[in-house]
């Protein structure tokens, strides 16, 4: 066991894992975080706490993770390279471990232009692959990047993102291989809408034997409305939403129900793809749907490990 | 080539507040090319400032305000005018303003903003850019610099945001640097280069080396003491 986190144990025991995203508030309310954690706890194995996602300032991931942990839910701390240099990154990691956080997702981070402080300076002292390497070194060699000794263990389950839809497509598997080589233990992918392309990507992943080395959780975004479907199709970088799904949302009598239906269909198709070890639900500002989807997909109750 | 653009007039006037007599200084180098500080723009500025109630003590447009030696000799004929002025408005890049300020014992205001070139060097516009990182990675990236071609300066491959070969940041005008690198390496049959992991960069190497600072090589022939900014022109 590398970290002993709930997520790691669920995956180690061969269960199909379920994680869900929890966005911290644009404010200081601990109650907000606790409420969402309480909602998600029965229906997932771990919750990803985003790190100022889309470059909008929110409660820090490490603090929100600590609150989630107190509620008895296993947090996955997301960390971007956009806002911190290697000093801040390593220091935050020490603090995270001290607070009982055991999972980390290493990200480059959305460009600050997309957020509410477009004039801020980005950092990118490390890129996500170098971050993965740094965390592995801290954990496995008990050393800082500089080589100085760390006192105390750094039990962290190291995660990384992968996007089967971004360009250049052929580079995507290569980049995944690099992340695995750098030390990633698990992968959470960008949201899957076009299952065919995802399946093709997974085939390339298997050809390289990567599914044997890393646990892959497929991303899922439940669509709440036709407006959201269109927005994601047209404006969200890195996402690919087929027109057919937008049409379905448009023609649906009950849009939310249609969104749930689409999510369930996608789950049905991807859970059988060899090498997929779980699912990561990103119900942005629609956390209430997670219990519903996991229930109807037959994922409940979650295993006790 | 340094690229500059004129500051808004209100900002210039604000910086000149309380100063009735102003000497205008333009540059016949890059600023002339950018149409921000050549003779034409200096004369236009003269008219504008006079319209705003300022007295113009005199004006000059010299060759290369970035060259301290040239500025010193070039300003001698204007000594009296400069002495009589409350301040100088320098219409060029930030280097020229610093040079003026170090050469002339007068308050010097910038009339322009110097715009980021994002690592481009040389006289002519081109897409090749270098940030002088001190540890060149071009061997791994097919001769395209990831620090400048990628908006996030990622060095191990693309982020998840590229679409149709365009960067997530301003897709209308920007190609994804990593798409370009990928295509170049593919063409050169060097895709295996992408498997190598580049370790974290030593950004300390982006500082000029100690032994280069202050040398003749570094300052292209200017003496060390001239660079302290204490030595001023003649009686000024
Ligand atoms: S890798 Fe460094 S030295 Fe090479 S071109 Fe880019 S910035 Fe310049
Ligand atoms: S889209 Fe391409 S160029 Fe833009 S930040 Fe991502 S990798 Fe860099």
Just give the CATH class of the largest domain in chain B.
Answer: Alpha Beta
List bound small molecules.
iron/sulfur cluster
**pLDDT averaged over residues of chain B:** 86
The second-level CATH architecture of the largest domain in chain B is 3-Layer(aba) Sandwich
* N-to-C order of helices and strands of chain A: HEHEHEHEHEHEHEHHHEH
Q: Architecture of chain A in CATH?
A: Alpha-Beta Barrel
Give an overview of the whole structure.
The complex is a heterodimer of chains A (305) and B (236). The relative contact order of chain A is 0.15. Chain A has eleven helices and eight strands. Chain A is globular and about 60 Å long. The longest helix of chain A has 16 residues, at 255-270. Chain A has a single domain, classed as TIM Barrel. By secondary structure, chain A is of the alpha/beta class. Chain A has an eight-stranded parallel β-barrel, surrounded by six helices. By secondary structure, chain B is an alpha/beta fold. Chain B has two domains: 1-140 and 200-222, Rossmann fold (3-Layer(aba) Sandwich); 142-197, no CATH class. In chain B, the strands form two sheets. In chain B, strands 3-2-4-5 form a four-stranded parallel β-sheet, with helices on both faces. Chain B has a two-stranded antiparallel ribbon with strand order 1-6. Chain B is built from nine helices and six strands. Chain B is 28% helix and 14% strand. The chains are: A alpha/beta (305), B alpha/beta (236). At the A-B interface, helix 5 and helix 6 of A face helix 8 of B. Residues 130-133, 136-138, 145, 147 of chain B line the site of one iron/sulfur cluster.
